[in-house]
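Loading example: each entry is read as four labelled lines plus one structure line.
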Amino acid sequence: MSRKNLRFGVLGVGRIGKIHAENLVNRIPGAEVAALADVFADELARVAARLNVTATYQDYRQVLELPEVDAVAICTPSDTHKRVILDAAAAGKHIFCEKPIELSVAAIEEINQEVAKRGIQLMVGFNRRFDPNFLKVREMVQSGKVGTPQVLKITSRDPAPPPEHFIRASGGVFLDMTIHDFDMARYLMGSEVTEVYARAGVLVDPVFEKAGDWDTAIVTLAFASGAMGVIDNSRKAVYGYDQRVEVFGSGGMVTVRNNTPDSHIHLDQTGVHSALPLNFFMERYTESYLREMRAFVEAVQGTQPVPVTGQDALLAVVIGLAAAKSARENRPVKLAEIH
Amino acid sequence: MSRKNLRFGVLGVGRIGKIHAENLVNRIPGAEVAALADVFADELARVAARLNVTATYQDYRQVLELPEVDAVAICTPSDTHKRVILDAAAAGKHIFCEKPIELSVAAIEEINQEVAKRGIQLMVGFNRRFDPNFLKVREMVQSGKVGTPQVLKITSRDPAPPPEHFIRASGGVFLDMTIHDFDMARYLMGSEVTEVYARAGVLVDPVFEKAGDWDTAIVTLAFASGAMGVIDNSRKAVYGYDQRVEVFGSGGMVTVRNNTPDSHIHLDQTGVHSALPLNFFMERYTESYLREMRAFVEAVQGTQPVPVTGQDALLAVVIGLAAAKSARENRPVKLAEIH
Amino acid sequence: MSRKNLRFGVLGVGRIGKIHAENLVNRIPGAEVAALADVFADELARVAARLNVTATYQDYRQVLELPEVDAVAICTPSDTHKRVILDAAAAGKHIFCEKPIELSVAAIEEINQEVAKRGIQLMVGFNRRFDPNFLKVREMVQSGKVGTPQVLKITSRDPAPPPEHFIRASGGVFLDMTIHDFDMARYLMGSEVTEVYARAGVLVDPVFEKAGDWDTAIVTLAFASGAMGVIDNSRKAVYGYDQRVEVFGSGGMVTVRNNTPDSHIHLDQTGVHSALPLNFFMERYTESYLREMRAFVEAVQGTQPVPVTGQDALLAVVIGLAAAKSARENRPVKLAEIH
Amino acid sequence: MSRKNLRFGVLGVGRIGKIHAENLVNRIPGAEVAALADVFADELARVAARLNVTATYQDYRQVLELPEVDAVAICTPSDTHKRVILDAAAAGKHIFCEKPIELSVAAIEEINQEVAKRGIQLMVGFNRRFDPNFLKVREMVQSGKVGTPQVLKITSRDPAPPPEHFIRASGGVFLDMTIHDFDMARYLMGSEVTEVYARAGVLVDPVFEKAGDWDTAIVTLAFASGAMGVIDNSRKAVYGYDQRVEVFGSGGMVTVRNNTPDSHIHLDQTGVHSALPLNFFMERYTESYLREMRAFVEAVQGTQPVPVTGQDALLAVVIGLAAAKSARENRPVKLAEIH
């Protein structure tokens, strides 16, 4: 292989780590996987064999010591992100880290300062920005096809709630689920959120209430531009993964449909039938996972800043914290109250 | 014609009065138009000639004196509604009145008490309830096709703002425009609204600000059932009259598309193109105007209560007043604060 | 009523006669119904009462004698059309006649000559020309939106076969059912058909075979312009009345969707579901029946030729006869072989 | 890499060869590329470098001599297919060959006999069978979702004509373009074609006439089952690559939409706009190229017959020859006349 390839250590080969490792090995020109790390030896061996990677380690720090590793993809559990990022930054590796990098403002600021000091690149895995449909919406908004954006609408519904232990560790619906929509809101509207009002409830499963969380929410956003937005979330849509956005403005409107496994239309005596949305994020965002990692590789190799920064991670968390506070206190909350 | 026909006096033959008069003359079995009234003599004569109605009066009170008139359709300017309703009730006529019957709680309660005392029927013109698409949504919700309703979404955008004098007399966006959506929310969800949060702004035209009004709004609703809802409004959608609803629940989701003048799909080198939504309410709700008047006639003749009552008018206004208060004070407002 | 109204005698008040009579009474400015005729006295009385028409006759010839009748709408059984047309022409009445006016070339030519001689107007009920969707397709073709038309596709499927006695008297699928599509082909393409190849079979019900008829067919058309077309027919689509057209050309393509009773979209665990096409022609073509009669009234009153002439009737029948010959002999048949 | 991988020689690394080579290297478990061949040394070197393949040859016969090569993917020009297949068969290699394997019945039969004698597997590249949408249609037909299939409709339009030299060498529209549709017809309907009638013309570009070819065609098919079908083709759809199928039967209908690069819907003052179909086959059938090669690898490794055989190639060519004869002689042609 060529000398100029960006050589990755993939840290964590669980569900999402496998996706990134496979994309880096097979589908991203200019990248290769030099080492894999995971605490689970069996899974590590299986993935390594399949991808033909020989260097494997159970301790991620061993990967950070390898001089041939230029960058890491951090796919370890969320509560380890800060530690792994700081270690990787100290080792001078460029960093792609899955979202969320951290759940508190202080922790993210510490990360961002450390990264800035080391002069490395840090990209955060808000993969939806790279989805061809949402990308098209952004392009149309930016090129003026809807005029001045006035109203943003995002519907984001999961097909089924996560397991209870996940809910308890997730940071709550706004930091775990809606955080993607908050990032999307900033991305699509090209304006910062200044205030939120969140109405949240437990309509799907009492387990959320026991965990001090909510499963259903409607969040109103105010943007610095004067525009408004609304996000509606549910932890359970029986018909699948519902992911829609709409931007309305002075010149028109643009929206996208959900993705489906096929486009068949079937008519019989009972009605017209077609395929449900793709279920779940692994299928729905296959293409965006690939494109985001390509973007990371291109940014690092081109010595340009990466497209989703630690600052983006910070701002999404700030909105999430404001939304949670708003829902608890049933009043609009300005972001300035949080940070 | 048959003796049992319900004989109408149509009071006011402007835009909406003409629609009702024509429907009553030509398309509603069991109804006929016995008299027309309007202060503008020329227009009155034209409509009367076209519809072959011989009894015409410039003063609506003369119609109320006619013993052969069983019912009136009140299509006079909104600020006359209360007076005409009270006069018609005193004359013992059944009443169909265009929305809004009044803009204050006290006035509507006075009307409702008077109507109850006289033992007549009063129906309010929330015509959208009779639209075949929205009716289908309600039927599916009521028959359990979406399970327990959890989230309601309504998008309601006008093609263009009304003239300034209309804006100033309208009672504001929430009582003039969103009031239809508030009624639709109660109708579709089968549960009462208990609290609202409205974010409103002037993004379309400064004339709204001068009139102390807004042109763009997002309103979050809490229902007694625990469900939530959101309405987004704009006074100006350049692509036409955008009227969509969606009900999401534990068992699925139901939504409807906008109506278009035709279903053509045109593909050329630049893209795939199809027809814009029907523009404006006269075209969009043609069928619902017809069906609501049929429903009124059937209810009166069947001696059953009419399907949209003075109580419905009251509750929509209460929500509207709460929304306006919420927007002004930027906080959620419980309906109990209003009434 | 105004003196200038076109006064109609409606001859035959069966299914289609009722539609025309009701439209003429209630929904067509400039027209009125002066008399009704039908051999069935009871039905005649019912329709007359409902429409408030006092002059009724069991013998249509009595209507033709009325001096106040300007025009007739012939809705009697198909096998009486020729006789009624000739009588009406002799009486100097303008004629709207349901399709088919006759099934043989000779009979139609006799009718057309007689009509020409009398100086009256004859319009044939190819109502689909007046459907808003098909009209839009024609407008787009004529205004050059698809460039030079190259390929026409028509799908026309009935929801269920007619009764056996109807099949036996129908003239066969090409003269009874496809004849609408043949007329539509000429109308949409703006070019005459010169040759057809029809492949036909009995795939739905053996009753068609017993009657010497077919229930399924694919007909290839050659147009004088060099363009081609294909029509596919079935007597039974379990999902309803399937009526689609597509015109493809050097500059693009235009097509239309089927009409549905509502636009709801329902998602549940099993899929995405929506409404079947309107079923049957009475519902599907409600608007086109109204518009065709308006067009007849406007043409006669404007002293312009009517938009669907006896010549149009003749040409559709010639194509139908060629198609039947083609299917029987399994070879392409030039229209010049027929007429 | 694992010992059991199927090791490929990819013969020809032009447009389609690159796709297969890349899929085999990166995306097909159980396969690897052991050698590449192409007469153009520069392109060969570029592809080899990119895919990290070290063994490259300008003469494909050198690849056939490599003992480590188990199978070949033949992507050389169509007029070399027969010779390369026979050489590969003689060398005992399993063969995947791009369509068409040959254009004459005699040549294909010779190939099939040779392949059978050598006991190797031969798969033909009718990639559309592996498209997720068409696959879904087939599954629904086979599982009875449309009842007994009665009518097949295929629309297949290219975005632009091929260059003149390609047209002259292509074997004509029916063997070059419609051949895919003929294979699809057999595949979807599960019944053999017995007779065809083709109407063809030159409506797009006179170059087709000069080459003794056509650019526009409508082909009627009769199936052994009694069902019928129709294919319409054009060499030039300005709006892109139009690939639709529809199967209609006694129990319903199933169809699929064209694939688009994204699902955006844009509304502005001029209309509703969305994305054109993917253009061209490289983009449209990306997924099916991958899936067909996977199916080949799985079949060979599983020692099962491959899913698209030399017999399938033969039958598609027979239908194509019958269609060409039908178009020339303007009469229906039975397949028995050809073979």
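The domain at 129-287+316-337 of chain B is CATH 3.30.360.10 (Dihydrodipicolinate Reductase; domain 2).
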